[in-house]
Specification:
This protein is an alpha+beta fold and 186 residues long. It has helices spanning 4-24, 29-59, 67-80, 84-92, 102-116, 134-138, 167-185; strands at 64-66, 120-122, 130-131, 140-143, 148-151, 158-166. Helix content is 61%, strand content 13%. The chain has 7 helices and 6 strands, in the order ααβαααββαβββα. Strand 2 and strand 3 form a beta hairpin. The chain has 2 domains: 4-59; 64-185, no CATH class.
Length: 186
């Protein structure tokens, strides 16, 4: 089987061939149009798929994970290891006397992550990922399940969106947490 990119090019080529035959070599004009539309049937989806793959390869980076997904994964690992990080997320997140909800727990885990490893985000209107400085992190808080970084002061607004971290850094944090959890059991 051909790789998906090659497959898209193959079907696009078939579509172009069918259009050329339909418009250039036809016995009757009606059949020419039928063959041309059949070519578009193959050509347009192939071009859409190719464009989507091209766009995805530009925007997705497998070495990065969204901070929300990282917080979910780290929290799950912390719970599995009965880590103090999970307890902290549950007891210290949220406002007031009650425990925080899942949104608050993820925001707390994101704050923990950002204190230990570099995080990255985009600052509107830019779409370029940049490392978020520790100075900015001192004056900001994570909101909406760790998907945004907002300034502490009311009215200052969102500073960064599309907040991410490197997968390798997340794996190091999970390893660090599991070692600390083993030390707690002793």
């Amino acid at each position: 089987m051909l790789p998906s990119s090659s497959m898209s090019k193959f079907w696009a080529g078939i579509g172009v061939e069918v259009i050329a035959v339909g418009l250039g070599v036809s016995i009757t004009p009606a059949w020419g149009w039928v063959i041309a539309f059949a070519g578009l049937f193959f050509f347009i989806p192939a071009v859409k798929k190719w464009w989507g793959e091209r766009r995805q390869s530009v925007t997705s980076h497998p070495e990065f994970i969204t901070l929300k997904d990282a917080a979910v994964k780290l929290y799950g690992e912390c719970r599995a290891h009965k880590s103090k990080w999970a307890t902290g997320a549950e007891e210290l997140s949220g406002a007031g006397i009650s425990r925080g909800n899942s949104d608050d727990i993820l925001n707390w885990m994101a704050t923990l992550i950002a204190g230990k490893k570099p995080v990255y985000g985009t600052r509107a209107p830019s779409i370029v990922r940049e490392k978020i400085s520790k100075e900015i992190l001192k004056h900001a808080t994570f909101i909406k399940s760790a998907t945004r970084l907002e300034h502490f002061l009311p009215g200052e607004g969102v500073i960064y969106t599309n907040v991410e971290m490197k997968v390798a850094d997340l794996n190091e944090l999970i390893e660090q947490m599991s070692f600390e959890a083993v030390d707690q059991e002793d």
